[in-house]
Amino acid sequence: MKITLEQVAKKSNLSTGTVSMALRNDPRIKESTRKYVLELAQRLNYIPSALGRSLATQKTQILGLTITDITNPFFTEVFKGVEDMAVKNGYSVILSNTEYDLKRETEILRIFLEGRVDGLVIDPVENNTDFAMLKQLKRMGIPFVLLRKLKGLEKEYDYVMADDKKGAIILTQHLINMGHRRIGYIGSTQCGVTDHDRFLGYKQALAKAGIEFDAGLVTSHDSFSLSEGLKVGRGLLQARKDIDAVVAFNDLLALGVMEAAYSLGLRVPEDLAVGGFDDIYISGLSPVSLTTIALPKYELGSRATELLIDKIEAKRSKRPAKTNQIVLEPKLVIRRSCGHKEKEEQR
Amino acid sequence: MKITLEQVAKKSNLSTGTVSMALRNDPRIKESTRKYVLELAQRLNYIPSALGRSLATQKTQILGLTITDITNPFFTEVFKGVEDMAVKNGYSVILSNTEYDLKRETEILRIFLEGRVDGLVIDPVENNTDFAMLKQLKRMGIPFVLLRKLKGLEKEYDYVMADDKKGAIILTQHLINMGHRRIGYIGSTQCGVTDHDRFLGYKQALAKAGIEFDAGLVTSHDSFSLSEGLKVGRGLLQARKDIDAVVAFNDLLALGVMEAAYSLGLRVPEDLAVGGFDDIYISGLSPVSLTTIALPKYELGSRATELLIDKIEAKRSKRPAKTNQIVLEPKLVIRRSCGHKEKEEQR
DNA sequence: ATGAAAGCGCTAACAA
DNA sequence: TTGTTAGCGCTTTCAT
Q1: What is the pTM of this model?
Q2: Which pLDDT value is given to residue A344?
Q3: φ and ψ at A35, to 5 degrees?
Q4: Does B53 map to a domain?
Q5: Is A53 within the bounds of a domain?
Q6: DSSP A11-56
Q7: How far apart are CA A196 and CA A168, in angstroms?
Q8: Alpha-carbon distance B158 to B146, whole Å?
């Protein structure tokens, strides 16, 4: 039922070596026999075994990717960036979802350690990530690139990320320019680096504008979903009726906050301004589109993958690979949720 | 650098066979040596090679999944269903995105054919799918389950899908009950079975209500995205000012149509009612939430995977596996986009 | 209870 | 230009 190289060799009265080379268009094989072999293989429906080949060559042409939440359109774009770059270079990608669960992440990395992939792009579960696992990866010489920097290990590992602090500064300043003063922040309790940086940027922008930081306007959340934004948002809005704007950790949460506002009879942006991060595609939806910090999602994925592939090839050719830290620029996308000074667009 | 079974065997003065069995807790191995081996392996940081094992056992414990558009939250849920069920049974999953591109699908299936996976869950590129590829899969004895039925091959292959026609009937009837008469339909030009069934249901519901089918109210689209819905929706709404409702092939398109309406100064649902399919999570967003046919996304994925795993195990134990066709029930979720008879909710 | 050895399907170095 | 052969790392009889 399953045809192997050996069978093709037998049928053709050639050796497996020759057939193997012929099938891979090795120039050492005579044109006529190459054609003959190709045809025969075709006729026999021969499909080479990736397993056999991988074991022999010590490479799989597969990249692993761990994502914290594939449900978030942000990561879906990152994935596309990864996959496109991978395919372009002859790799496939295995995607695994950690769901912000450390156990799951550890388990997934363990599986990847078993030599199924040539390298990994890792979106670590914030700072909970299993450092032991990363060390293990490094020790085993499996190339990987992170999609986040790890606190205290900025110099140790390669990563590609966006400038979170800068993004937060720009967004907060924009809110201030729009005339808002009591600006709240909804960030994570996990103390991840990403959140930490954004929070820092938020505070810095406030300080620069001479607005006193008010801890009562800050709320933490447990997940990064729309429904969590709704829940936490309601809490914050009810506790602080004087609030007039919110910076949310990401668009999903921001959208949730907007929902919260509506549910409390508040209008956006008239009664409450809201800003987010990511610029996922639903953020542009009417009637109140979300002003947000656009992150280069696709590029995050593609550049991380590019870097990874380079590392893989460096390893193969024993060329030394230096660690790379790439920080991409965020960009403010002004829509309607933060208010605006231009005339009301015609509808 | 990389520790192999053989090295562990050497260090322990045992044979590779014994070590192999010990590590897998084979009862034939004496407890004391089992412990000894486990400890030694741990100490040496031994990680078994999945490749070696797979080649020997002829199984990878990996499932392949092809998805037409990972950007669509619908598929993101399906993926989670697949992955959860896979993990629960000791499998990992390789996800590939076909982007509704036949070439890409063929290439992806070819790669999967090379024995990298134990089985496949395939969301075929509608009816363009490469039947030759499916036949090949079948011939090679690689188990697979489809997430769609294929025209003319309903009996040939296993699939898990939702009852599209029924869903369309329910939705259209709901629109009619809400008092709408000039109900348009936005479906695909590709003549996929899914679309075909929904279109059929739509027409059937109209007929049953004594509403004459009006081809001028039907538009086809090229992709399944929000922006496509916006584009096509604008066209339809401008061409037919008399239209008062639209059934869209999916929520993304429906959301796009709503955007189109807003951009033309139409209110939803007062001036135009809109209904969709899928019930993706953004459909519940205010201020105008989308009435839609909820499809059991997660279950679609998990049940397909369950079925697949059963087929894989049937194959291993040479137990015959019957073909399974599973059709899941759709459910109408009434929100605001189609109008409603209840009082306006308090805001 | 453990060891020896064949084999899974392929590649690559070396011979011929 | 092609054949031979030794692995790649593991599992699994069959002996012992």
Answers
A1: 0.93
A2: 31
A3: -60, -45
A4: no
A5: no
A6: HHT--HHHHHHHHTT-TTS-HHHHHHHHHHHHHHT----HHHHHHH
A7: 11
A8: 6
Phi, psi (5° rounding) for residue A166? -60, -45
Considering the domain architecture, whether residues A337 and A191 belong to the same structural domain is answered as yes
Which residues of chain A fall short of a pLDDT of 50?
341-347
Domain-located, residue B54 = no
Is residue A279 situated within a structural domain?
yes
Q: What is the pLDDT of residues A139-165, one digit of tens each?
A: 889 999 999 998 888 888 999 999 999
According to DSSP, residue B212 is labeled P
CA of A40 to C1' of C12 (A): 23
Q: Give Cβ neighbours of residue B212 (< 8 Å, ≥ 6 apart).
A: B206
Asked whether residue B314 falls in the same domain as residue B248, the answer is no
CATH of the domain at B73: 3.40.50.2300
| B319 and B339 assigned to the same domain | no
Cis previous bond, A287, omega within 30:
yes
Examine the domain organization and report whether B284 and B234 are in the same domain: yes
Instruction: Spell out the residues 6+ positions from residue B342 whose beta carbon is closer than 8 angstroms to its own.
Output: none
- Between A and B, how many CB-CB pairs are < 8 A? 136
Q: How far apart are CA B60 and CA B117, in angstroms?
A: 6
Name the domain count of chain A: 3
In the prediction, which pLDDT does B347 show? 23
Tell me which chain A residue has its CA closest to the CA of residue B298.
A71
Protein chain A, residues 23-52, with a C-beta closer than 7 Å to any atom of nucleic acid strand D: 28-30, 32-34, 52
| Domain co-membership, B315 together with B339 | no
The token pair at A160 is: 């590609």
B140 Cβ within 7 A of any nucleic strand C atom = no
Q: Is B52 on the interface with A (CB under 8 A)?
A: yes
Could you report the average pLDDT of every consecutive run of 10 residues in chain B (347 residues)?
92 96 95 96 96 96 96 97 96 92 92 96 81 88 94 89 98 96 87 88 97 95 92 96 96 96 94 97 86 98 98 91 93 91 33
Each residue's pLDDT tens digit, A216-244: 999 998 889 999 999 999 999 999 999 99
Residue B206 lies in domain: 164-295+331-345
Q: How far is CA B129 from CA A316, B122, B191, B221, B312, in A?
A: 37, 10, 12, 19, 23
